[in-house]
Amino acid sequence: MNTKLANTLDLNLLRVFNQLMQQRNVTAVAKTMHLSQSTISHALSRLRNQLNDPLFVLVGKEMQPTEKAMHMAPAIQQALLLIQQGVSTQPHFDPKHDSRHFKIAVGGAIEQTYIAPIIKRLATFGPHLRLDVFELTNSDYEKELERNTLDLVIGFAGSGHLSDKLLTTHLVENPLSCITDLSFTPSIPGKITAEELVSRSHIYTSSWGHSQQLMDNYFQQRQLKRQVAAQVPTFTAVPKLLMDGHYLVVMPEMVATELCLRYPLQQLAIIDDPITVSYEIAQHPLTSHDIAINWLKSLIIEVCASTH
Fold first, then answer.
1. Contact predicate 192/178, CB 8 Å
2. Homologous superfamily of the 100-172+278-307 domain (CATH)
3. For residues 139 and 272, which has the higher predicted lDDT (pLDDT)?
């Protein structure tokens, strides 16, 4: 696209183009943008004339992009996101006075251990700061952070979990530990061997959790296989399951320690090549100049460092 043409393109036409790339349907785009179908069709016609390309061709019931449209799409989407970010970013942020609604995604261990002290710290600045916490899923989170659906994500480092396009900062690391009921008698008090780890069925926490993947690799390397009695999405049900049955659960030590303080359970250290889980906090490069998000990131890092 030449400079003269780029300078004359209507920003609204690019917004229509971006929506058509995502939805491939004029009716759906019109509904999303709260415009009439004729307005969308007219905008597309103007774009076709200015760019000298059909851009979208109707195939069946879907508008398929041309090669030129596919080539343009990433740059246009990035430009629109930069404009949105520039308009919405606060030039100044005072946590004692400015309102902000933050949104982050974290894994179960981080939620269990750090979210309460993080929210407690936020509350010291007043009720005008809100934090919504979402469960970590098997996503690389590039799109969620790019579109401001989330401000920050705390994920697993070195696992390929988060997109390499994100800005990441080391947050905390924690070894995996095993907990079980008090009837279990390990060969070494307070510790558990690889063979003992397969002597009872396991409760598998999380539907996809990185910690469990690390343990599966641990057993495969030793040509051992554990039996899984149940899979639960969070740590909530673990204490009752352990107290009512003879199971083992492997989880981050910070969670195991807390549960053993609250319930009649015992914590056992894995003595054969201890496994450590490392967590990192990530944001999108587009928000690297967002003063409020950077402030929250610093606060989270500080709270995590002081809590354990």
1. yes
2. Periplasmic binding protein-like II (3.40.190.10)
3. 139
